[in-house]
Design goal:
263 residues; mainly alpha; 10 helices
Amino acid sequence: MGMEAAETAREVGRHRWVEWLARAGYAASGLIHVVIGWIAAQVALGGGGDADQSGALGSLRSAPGGAVLLWVCVVGFVALALWQLVDAVAGADELTDRVKDGAKAVVYAVLGVTAFSFARGGGSDGEQRTDDLTAMVMGMPFGRVLVAAVGVGVLAVGGYHVYKGVSEKFLEDLRTTGGGTSGRAVTWAGRIGYAAKGVALAVVGLLFVVAAWQADPEEAGGMDAALKALSDQPLGTALLLVVAVGLVLYGVYSFARARYARM
């Protein structure tokens, strides 16, 4: 990419208002994780609900002021996707960093599209969408290998989340946590939150690997299927409650990141 084009992309994506909206995207991510954690806790205690992004967005829509919150999420996720895209195109020097920034841009863009669907009164079943996509991939040449590769990739991402939490590497993403009690609270929220999200993602990856092994796309699943799979294990209620609390804490950390993130 030419130097002038890269500089233009950087200027467009680095306006102050884009940074503010991108920070709102981190806050929106925090809100989604808090709601997912809350739904997961209800499931652990015998209640119902879909403990994934679609379930969280549906819950927000039915809450007082939910329509406004959903539109804030849409704008925040789109701005955050733009911010990450600029980093991928004209920011980081290392290819691996560009790939990571590009992947984050895609994730936030998908979140923005999903939130937009709910904000307009629509919606989607996240688990059914995952099953359908897995079935489509399995129908392709070497489809089972591709599904297994996706599972291994998600497992790796989950493992990295656990490592990032335990090692406190997530603090590198922050300018400061304010020091004192506030700083310690953010550190603990990030430490537990990243580890809990990593466990949930690792289970998602395992579900994809099992689906590929058994050639059954319905064995695959997203966050909701992963969390409910945890509840079926020995001491599953306690395990799911711990992960649910961890997801809430990840949301709390995301609120702090909205303010203190290195942008």
